[in-house]
Design a protein that fits this description.
- By secondary structure, this protein is mainly alpha-helical.
- Among the domains are: 60 residues, no CATH class; 57 residues, no CATH class.
- It is built from five helices and four strands.
- It has a two-stranded antiparallel ribbon with strand order 1-2.
- Strand 1 and strand 2 form a beta hairpin.
């Protein structure tokens, strides 16, 4: 509902009478309490103290009044009489014991020791560990055995069969490495001749090791497989 001049005049009159915004909204009809407060604020009407704040201020004033009461006067301190010291009574001191002079005693002659038999030997307790070995007791611990001095490696003397022949320890890049004999034989050795440059063997053994491949037509067929050839699964 719109605000007309007549309704505005009614609002001013009721506001000046001291009516609340809720009462004014109920009298005018068609407006709410907030609308009445907003219109009064826009018209510049005199603002009113909030009843909620007034109630709060009255409640806050009550404890302040209680606090403002003057505190009671402190009571006068009591004066206690000083305690009277009791008279001290001298305690009797104990008498010192009489001094007795020590007289030297004559020396006692050493008596010969009687021939006592030696104590019987105590039984030895041996603990058997796992595996059947005997454990040592606390008094049987031995000092650690020092390590043996390092041995000097002396090359073994060659056998008389290869005394003047090239052995495995004599091989190098300048001598032929063609084996002579079987490794299990006592006279097994190597060729030992001067190598063919670029090859590990001498000229004679290079001819045996490296052979020219024959033409395909003149090649021999491979030997037959043992046991009738490969198995067919």
């Amino acid at each position: 509902m719109s605000w007309t001049d007549e309704r505005i005049d009614q609002l001013r009159q009721m506001w000046e009478r001291g009516m609340t915004a809720s009462q004014i909204a109920e009298e005018l009809g068609g407006v709410s309490r907030n609308a009445v407060i907003g219109k009064a604020h826009r018209l510049g009407l005199q603002s009113r103290p909030s009843p909620v704040k007034a109630a709060d201020s009255s409640r806050a004033a009550a404890p302040q009044s209680r606090k403002a009461a003057p505190p009671p006067a402190p009571a006068a301190p009591k004066v206690e009489a000083a305690p009277v010291p009791e008279p001290r009574v001298a305690k009797p001191q104990p008498k010192a014991p009489p001094v007795v002079e020590a007289r030297p005693q004559p020396p006692v002659a050493a008596q010969p020791a009687a021939d006592t038999p030696p104590p019987p030997p105590q039984p030895r307790i041996v603990s058997v560990g796992p595996g059947g070995f005997l454990r040592q007791g606390p008094g049987e611990m031995q000092q650690p055995i020092p390590p043996a001095p390092p041995r000097r490696l002396v090359p073994a003397k060659p056998s008389p069969e290869i005394a003047d022949k090239t052995s495995l320890l004599d091989l190098n890049e300048k001598i032929c490495k063609w084996p002579m004999g079987h490794p299990g034989e006592p006279d097994f050795h190597f060729c030992g001749e001067k190598v063919n440059p670029g090859f590990p063997y001498c000229v004679e053994h290079c001819g045996r090791a490296y052979q020219a491949q024959l033409p395909r037509g003149t090649r021999r067929p491979p030997p037959p497989m043992p046991y009738g050839g490969p198995r067919v699964r």
